[in-house]
Design a protein that fits this description.
about 190 residues; alpha+beta; NADH Oxidase; 4-stranded antiparallel beta sheet; about 15% strand
Length: about 190
């Protein structure tokens, strides 16, 4: 027998979308509002119950510190002004971000790829839970997420760890149109035998 249907949840997922963090107006959930979002998001597939991730909540002062760190690191890497601006701007514009650090247990019988996928699923759950709670959210990465030195300096990521996502949460200051979605007929293949 199938699990009982939840039409409201299905409708939400069928219409879910991200909102550009650069359009957020500075209003963010406080700790009392964010904790249930994070608790709901933790209900994520996790083969072996390893919890192969860490979650960091960045508030405004920490984000401004990371903006300066991103600028310094971008200069060390010899990045151009546009790239440095994107790295810095992600933190400078934000008023609240949740960082998911993929922290796989190595070695372990559960493949590393499955543990990393669990961290990505956690990112998506945070976006969905924030949206379901009435907030806008956007999952970002960028060079700051992929640079091991920045990840270590900013988030204390160890060599076996990586930034799965930086999820910015807030209220939308200006609405933007939804992006085009993939054509299911082009990407879904039905295998019948």
């Amino acid at each position: 027998m199938p699990h009982p249907a939840n039409p409201a949840a299905f409708d939400f997922l069928a219409r879910r979308r991200s909102y550009p963090a650069k359009t957020f107006n500075g209003q963010v959930p406080d700790r009392a509002a964010l904790e249930p979002i994070l608790n709901a998001a933790l209900r994520v597939p996790d083969h072996g119950m390893l919890t192969p991730w860490r979650v960091l909540v960045l508030q405004r002062a920490a984000l401004l510190r990371l903006a300066a760190l991103a600028e310094k690191r971008g200069q060390e890497l010899g990045l151009d002004d546009v790239a440095i601006g994107k790295g810095r701007g992600q933190f400078e514009r934000s008023h609240l971000a949740v960082v998911v650090i993929s922290a796989p247990m190595i070695p372990h019988k559960v493949p590393t790829s499955e543990q990393v996928a669990s961290a990505a699923a956690l990112c998506m759950n945070i976006v969905n839970a924030a949206s379901a709670a009435g907030w806008a959210a956007q999952w970002l990465t960028g060079w700051v997420a992929h640079d091991a030195v920045f990840a270590h300096q900013a988030f204390h990521a160890q060599p076996s760890q990586s930034v799965a996502g930086i999820i910015h949460i807030g209220a939308v200051g200006e609405d933007t149109p939804d992006r085009p979605r993939p054509d299911p007929a082009r990407i879904i293949e039905w295998i019948t035998e």
